[in-house]
Design a protein that fits this description.
Elements (H helix, E strand, L loop, with lengths): L11 E3 L5 E3 L3 H22 L3 H22 L14 H17 L7 E2 L4 H24 L6 H24 L5 E2 L5
Antiparallel strand pairs: 1-2, 3-4
């Protein structure tokens, strides 16, 4: 399989199912932002040494590829099977969040990103995830998007925030609390 096909040289690309759309199409923007998020999760994973966290990051990347595939499919009966996001995928993230929360102080103030490079990477991934969620929810106003995709992105951003807090705790670094100037 060649890496270049030249079929996109005029600013159009194909969705799964064959429909050609401009590269700025809302679907492309949605799954392109998820692709950006997958790359950030890969960068984050490169920072981890614990095998359990590395496994979680690979699981998240796999689910994000599933989300991107769903958004790239423009066919009711595609010749290729499209994977699905299922409730258990969302529950997986919720279980991780709940486990981390048991170790953390209750959140009573806004936290500013920073404190450690790994925590900062979590926050950048979280903000990319939130952007993906905004784009996907906008897309869902015009075409069908399975609700589990939106739920997964929402929960993933919560997970990344909680993970950033846990990382600071594990490194014994104080969170940077926002103190508004009033």
């Amino acid at each position: 399989m060649k890496i270049y096909t030249k079929t996109g040289d005029k600013g159009k690309t194909s969705l799964i199912g064959g429909t050609r759309v401009p590269k700025h199409h809302q679907r492309i923007e949605a799954y392109g932002t998820i692709d950006e998020l997958m790359a950030y999760i890969g960068l984050l994973n490169d920072e981890f040494t614990e095998s359990g966290l590395k496994t979680v990051m690979l699981e998240i990347q796999d689910r994000l590829m599933t989300c991107a595939s769903i958004l790239a499919a423009d066919c009711e009966d595609c010749e290729v099977k499209i994977p699905e996001i299922i409730p258990e995928d969302i529950e997986f993230l919720e279980q991780l969040i709940d486990a981390y929360d048991k170790e953390l102080e209750p959140l009573r103030v806004f936290i500013l990103p920073g404190g450690h490079v790994i925590a900062s990477h979590c926050h950048i991934a979280r903000t990319v995830c939130r952007r993906a969620e905004r784009i996907v929810t906008h897309l869902a106003e015009n075409m069908y998007v399975p609700e589990h995709v939106i739920q997964y992105l929402n929960r993933l951003s919560d997970y990344l925030f909680t993970l950033s807090r846990k990382i600071l705790k594990d490194f014994n670094i104080d969170e940077i609390r926002w103190r508004p100037r009033l």
